[in-house]
Amino acid sequence: MTEDVANAIKEQIANNPILLYMKGSPHAPQCGFSARTVQCLMECNQRFSYVDILSNPAIRQTLPAIANWPTFPQLYVNGELIGGCDIVSEMHAQGELQPLLESAKEDQSSP
Predict the structure, then answer these.
(1) Positive or negative, the Cα torsion across 5, 25, 17, 83?
(2) How far apart are CA 79 and CA 1, in angstroms?
(3) The pLDDT value given to residue 6
């Protein structure tokens, strides 16, 4: 793991209130887990940033060690790892994802 890549990841997480590391893009996911996670986020009507790990192999290789989470996608809200597809899907089904995402938006607009 190079320090530059690790620092870039930490900066991405810090600078984006809602950030999804995924395979592909929200409009063209490259795996079913990324597609399901994006669908949950889009149903919450909140804007989010994303990083395509397939076109960023250094991030794909480094992020699991930083996050201590081996799989993708990985959703971060307010700098904290929420989890992957199963956790995000479960939170969405239980009505917990929407308020979490809304709080990220509110925190971003706070001074």
Answers:
(1) negative
(2) 20
(3) 95
pTM of the model: 0.92
Alpha-carbon distance of 96 to 90, in angstroms, equals: 8
CA nearest neighbour of 67 among 79, 49, 50: 79
Dump pLDDT digits (tens) for 24-44. 999 999 999 999 999 999 999
Residue 76, beta-bridge partner list: 19, 81
Q: Which residues does residue 83 pair with via DSSP β-bridges, in sequence order?
A: 75
d(CA 72, CA 50): 12
Strand partners of residue 20:
50, 75
Cis preceding-peptide flag for 57 (omega within 30 of 0): no
Cβ atoms within 10 Å of 89's Cβ, excluding its own: 17
